[in-house]
Structures are given as C-alpha cells and as structure tokens.
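Cross-posted from the bioinformatics board.
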Amino acid sequence: MPGTIELPTPEVDVEQDPQKLREPGYAVIVWDDPVNLMPYVTHVFQQVFGWGREKAQRHMLEVHEEGRSVVVRDSFEKAEYYVHALQKYSLTATLEPAS
Amino acid sequence: MRLHERNDEATSWFLASGERNLLLTLFSRPTEPRQRVQLSRTSEALEEQCQSDLAGELETHRAEVRSRLVMLLGVASPIQTTIQTPTGAREDSGWILRLTPEDREFLLQALNELRLGAWEQLGRPNPPEVPDDLAPTSPDILHWWNLEISSRFQGRLLSEEFPE
C-alpha cells in the first residue's frame, strides 16, 4: 500500500516475555472443590464481582456441575487482581491465558 | 451467634460468652500450614511469574484479618438480654460484636481459612463429612471439630445476614 511503512516484526518468545504475558486476554477460572459451601461461593461471587444473586448462583452451579466456570476475561492486571481477591476467600481460582 | 441489630453502617451480633471465647481462641492460635496455592494450571511462565506475589500477599492478608478479628472480639460489648424460648422468657448474657461489611467479609474469610486448613490436614476427604466410625481417640478429632464449628459460624452468618 502506497504511503505506508512496513515495520519489521520483532521476534519475541511470548512465554518468556513479561510484557507479552501482561497483554489483554486472560481468563479467571474458578474450579470445583468438595469443601467450599455453595452459599459461600455464591456470596463470594457477589462480593468480588458485584453480581446479583441470580448470576452468582448460575456461576456457582456451573462450578459445581461442570467442574469449573470462567468468571472473567480481562487484561492481565485485572485478571490477577480477581484471582487474588478470590484466593483471599480460599476459593480455587486460577489465571489462564485465554484461548 | 445471632443477628442482634442492623443499620446502614454495620450489623451487630449477639455472641454467647462461650462463642466469643471460642472465636478468640480460634483466631489467636497459629494457623494450620496451608498447601501452596496454584495461580495457573496451564502456563508455567505465569505460575512462576506470579506465585511469589500471591503467596506473600495471601500470608500478609490472612495475618491482618485474624489480628483485626481478635481486636474486634476484644472490644465487643457485654450485654444482658431477654430471649424467648419454648418454655418462656429467660435472661441471657453475652457479647455484642459489631461488624462493618468489610469486617463481616474478614470473618467469613477467616472462618473459611480455618475450614480449609482443617480439611487439608485431614487429607482432603471427599465428601468432607465426619466418618461414622471416627474413634474418640482419633488424632483427627480436632481437625473435624475445627471444620464443623467454623462451618456452623459461617452458615449462621450467611443465612441471617443474607436470607434466601
């Protein structure tokens, strides 16, 4: 295309580059466990994400019945914040690169 | 433990003397060592990058929460109250614990921390229910007791503050 300059593409190992790891596109997953009580998990979702009870219960049931629920997809910083918040309540939550 | 009063800023809970002493003891004791928290199941790079931050933050947070709860239980106000029972009214003495919404969340977190610590010490039983054949001399008795008692407090707090 006339008038444009094609920049070289830097060769970066995504898994080794902290900057790449911080780009948007991370999922927060809450995993099922046999010990956290269902009303407690619902309450935690309401507190951490500000959800209404119906949405919080839907995700809680998804965790319970399917083993996991993706509760947030966001930038690295926000996803990490949510994982820390959930871990403070001792829920089994992890941060995964969104596929 | 029962809901005593509620206003826009806080809820007040009636604790029997035994309940207050029990909570003070539970939150003053050293915690059971918890298993390492995993941050990512699919990315080793993420796990490595974030693990130390998470572990340190959780440890600090848990210590602050327990310290705050011990302080709140320490400044609870004594109260003499009348309660209705099936056999009539009777005097009851205890303590009033005032919890802001933030303090309530701290209490829920600390109780759940106790539950999970006990559950891990028991080898993560599934379901986490006291076995019928648990011997009175079993070394697991205290862990089961911690699991059960913290569940009861947690359930009471949630059901009274947020009824279905």
